[in-house]
Every structure is written in C-alpha cells, then in structure tokens.
Design goal:
5-stranded mixed beta barrel; alpha+beta; 15% strand; 2 domains; 5 helices; 39% helix
Length: 218
C-alpha cells in the first residue's frame, strides 16, 4: 500500500482530516493570522494568564476543558492538547492500518476492524498524549494573582465522608499551602474521605468547586 493510499482510505483517513485541519491552523499561526496565545487554556496549576479566555464565558468549551483536564491533558492551550492527541491517534491508526488491517481478508471485515482500530487508537492515545504534554506544561505557565478560578484543574483530596451536589470539602495545595475548599460532585460517585479528585469548575454564585474522581494512573 502506498503512502497516499494509506492516508486516504478508512480508517486512517479520519484522523488524517483532523491532522490536516490542525496543520492549516498552525501554518496560519506561524504567519500571524492566528494567535496561539488567544486559544483556550486548559488550566492546571497556573493562574489565569493574559490572553486566556474565561471558561465561564464559553460554556461548551468549559465542558470540553473539564473533560480534557480530567484525562490529564490540561495545563496547555487547547490547540496544543488537540494537536498532540490527534497526532498520536493518527500515528497509531496508520501503523495498525498498514500492518494489521492489511491481513483482514474481506472489505466488510476490514471496515468493521477499521472502526475498532479507530476506537482503540483514540483510547490508547489519551495516556500517551498526557505523558507527552506533562513536561510541556511549564512552557505555558503565566504568573498572575491567584483567583478562585485558578484552582480549576488542580488535584485535591476529599476530607468528608462523601461528596454530593449539596455538600463536600477537600484540601488543595495553593503555592505550598494547603487550603480547605467547598466542593460538590454529581452522584453517584466513588468519592470518599481520602479520595483523590480533580477540580473541573468553579461556581462563583455558590462559591463551590465541582470535582471529579481522578483518573487512574497509567
């Protein structure tokens, strides 16, 4: 199979399209048509920096950011996280397409196996991308006055017996000082005293943080 056939046929064609879109985006950023600093920043331990959008002004992106932070893809601009994740998915899909799907005998089975390859590559790319992004987070730290929202993306440890939509407390590290904050979480959940969680949102009205159970470490 030639390189063009590999990139233009299912399943590799799917991540190839996303990769092409991201390549156009980065080319536009290089020539100055797009400012990477203006992209949504997925906060972990950094405060709100200049040029970063407020997640509360972008409800759909806020939800997406919460999921990405929970998956370990936070601490970098959304464009960077998406680029690394898509590239890992594309590379994995292309390799499996070339060396595994080529042995599938019929087109029908190959199509079904291709769907499985896409799902497998996407799932396996998440922990790989998280590991790649980890040393890059320091490059995007922008120091500013700490706000309540700046704790979004931080790890915390539950200090109450349970956490529900109306009650919960947790300890979080803030520049080396442990502070106790009000938290809540959707139910049912496995959060209990001593559980590790991730702060995914802040409600300024109720002055309460939404938390999710921390993902398993790969």
């Amino acid at each position: 199979m030639t390189l063009w056939q590999l990139l233009s046929t299912f399943p590799t064609a799917v991540p190839t399209v996303f990769l092409a879109v991201l390549l156009v985006y980065w080319l536009m950023s290089i020539i100055g048509l797009v400012d990477v600093g203006d992209t949504l920043h997925l906060h972990t331990d950094a405060g709100h920096g200049h040029g970063a959008h407020d997640l509360h002004d972008l409800p759909d992106l806020h939800t997406l950011a919460g999921y990405l932070v929970a998956l370990g893809l936070g601490g970098v601009p959304l464009s960077v996280a998406a680029s690394v994740l898509v590239f890992c998915t594309w590379l994995s899909t292309a390799l499996l397409h070339q060396y595994v799907l080529a042995w599938v005998p019929t087109d029908t089975l190959r199509m079904a196996a291709g769907c499985g390859v896409l799902l497998f590559s996407g799932a396996m790319s998440i922990p790989v991308a998280a590991r790649i992004l980890q040393p890059l987070r320091g490059l995007f730290v922008k120091h500013a006055a700490r706000t309540n929202e700046s704790l979004v993306g931080q790890d915390c440890r539950i200090t109450t017996q349970s956490v529900d939509p109306g009650f919960g407390r947790a300890d979080v590290d803030a520049h080396g000082v442990s502070i106790n904050i009000r938290v809540w979480a959707v139910v049912p959940n496995a959060l209990a005293k001593g559980s590790k969680a991730i702060i995914v949102a802040y409600d300024p009205v109720n002055q309460q943080y939404e938390v999710q159970a921390a993902p398993a470490v790969f």
